[in-house]
Amino acid sequence: MRLIATLTVLFLGSPLWAAAWRADIDAATERANGTVVELRHYFHANPELGNREFNTAKKIAARLRELGFDDIEEGVAHTGVVAILKGGLPGPTVALRADMDGLPVTEQTGLPFASKVTTEWQGEETGVMHACGHDAHMAILLGAADVLASMRDQIPGNVKFICQPADEGPPEGEEGGAELMKKEGVLGGENVPGAIFGLHVFPEVAGVIFYKSEGFLAAADGLSIRVRGVQTHGSMPWRGVDPIAASAQIINSLQTIVSRQVDISQAPAVVTIGSIEGGNRGNIIPDEVRMTGTIRTLDLAMREQVHARIIKTAELVAESFGAVAEVEIDEGYPVTMNNTALTAQMAEELDRVSRGGKAIVVKPIMGAEDFSFFANEIPGLFFGLGVAADDNAQGESAPNHSPYFYVNDAALPHGVRALSSLALAWLHAQ
Ligand SMILES: [Zn+2]
Ligand SMILES: [Zn+2]
Q1: Please, which residues have CB less than 5 A from ligand 1, an ion?
Q2: pLDDT at site 8
Q3: Of 100, 153, 176, 223, whose Cβ has the fewest other Cβ atoms within 10 Å?
Q4: What is the pLDDT of residue 192?
Q5: How far does the centroid of ligand 1 lie from the alpha carbon of residue 202, in Å?
């Protein structure tokens, strides 16, 4: 029994047949790297906002055609591109996903391929930048398409490449992103994927891969609160109801939800008020204050508990002032859940392709990803890839969404090897 167990572990751990395709992936990644870097710089210099990735989509589709894909669907969920690589051997389908959108950020990196693109965003002229690294995600995905296409004959099944618009959220009043792609049947049809893989770049050591099983990224819900009072002269607050004083109290009380009312020893949570607006001059107490914020949780029960407490706190604190609070919670992205069995099964691949030969298991990250909509439907594994500049000390690099966000090209081949290896390892394991 013991011997058999050991043999099984050995077989699963490093089967002989795996050595060949792994070596092929590594060689093909090296060959593809020049193009991957070029594509990354192209996407970086030409960013587009969510649901407006028209040129980006064209570039992706053109590259996939160059690689010999003949099954390319464009215009999915507005600007998404979905393509299937049919392997030479029969087998199931696995999906790889990258997001395509840039952000309304004016780039300050000073790189030779820095974005000079501007556009109108919510009525104002703004720069556009790939400040979240989705340029790297697309280049890496196309790198994996290149690598796997060159090994087509040995692939036991199909690989579905999903280029997804609007991860950062569609413009107001529009649908978009992974949720809309799902609605449009991306995970259905003729080739239903049995698993999906994706990655996100972060300003950590370049080439290092990090992940965790189960809740990896948080659920993100939007919060807006309208506090209604009664307008009066600033010198006579007793003649009205002051929504500004009520709002100050509401904000402070909201901060006791995470610190005092939920069990944060089980999972972290965040409640942030990020904008507040009310009044127009110092001697008028206005009739209304509006606040918006974000709620991050990693556990479904806690998510519901935090929502209920926010509503109760805002409403009752306002009432104690004689004001009225109207709370709206806009359920956003679910928790990005990494399938336990799939994560355990793929740990060895992630180790192999990570810089230093060992991927790092981390604590959850409070950012959110709409990859979660896919991973709620089929087993998914989403992981992080470090892209910081080589000479930056830990914690010194600009964060995602900063106008100084930087992607180190040296990290790209680690991403290409990761996505290619995960797809092939999964197909071989079926
Ligand atoms: Zn982002
Ligand atoms: Zn992002």
Answers
A1: 132
A2: 43
A3: 153
A4: 95
A5: 10
